[in-house]
Amino acid sequence: MKARILWIEGKRANSPSFVPQLRKHDYRVETVATGSAAQEVLLVLDPDLVVINAASLRTSGKRMCRDIRVKLSTLPIILIIDETEESTDTCATVVLKLPFTARKLLNRITPLLPADEQQVLHVGPVRLNAEMKKVRCQGREARLTPRLTKLLRTLMENPGIVVEREDLFRKVWNTQYTGDTRTLDVHISWLREALEEDPRHPKFLKTIRGVGYRLDI
Question: Taking Cα atoms as reference points, which of 19, 44, 48 lies closest to residue 31?
Fold first, then answer.
């Protein structure tokens, strides 16, 4: 699956939008028309890249860059500005001055994206790279053990569905024995530490008492 791009562009752009070309290259592009709208979806979408078409918004884009950096400090940002605009002190990763071609944009995007994106399983804001044993959720990234990776993958393959304890033991531990429930509970708590902003009040990984667990996305 290709990377997620959050594209901020005014509805009255002076130049043709590059969004259709990016989608033709299988990128998942979500568009918003204002910086405030971008802030509302930023953590939920958890994009790999943000593109700010400041030229279409009649702004320098500097404040938008700073606001994004506050929430996701390492997120790559491409800032598109008018040819007459100064490109200093933007805190963007890449600044492009209009006009330019779609090919140039693609060439600048590619180095900023994860090289292993094809190995990533996406479910809502949760991204699991099973090969690298890393999970990312709403800007937070954590490294997992092989067992935790297998447990999370099992839950991600069944989003919104209660996975019974017996099934988790069978798929993750390769056993029919379910007497040691503490083992599963501890692993779930470790997953919550990786996924949740507040592990004691989980938003995503829910306990269904007496049955099992469910990943709510």
Answer: 19
CATH fold of 117-215, please? Answer: Arc Repressor Mutant, subunit A (1.10.10)
- If one compares 159 and 14, the residue with the highest pLDDT of the two is 159
CATH class of 4-112: alpha beta
Give the pLDDT confidence of 77-95 residue by residue, as tens digits. Answer: 999 998 888 777 778 999 9
| Spatial CB neighbours of 55, under 8 Å, sequence gap ≥ 6 | 13, 14, 15, 80, 81, 82, 85, 98
The per-residue DSSP string of 181-205 comes to HHHHHHHHHHHHHHH-SSTTS-SSE
SS3 52: strand
Query: Tokens 């949760």 identify what position?
Result: 126
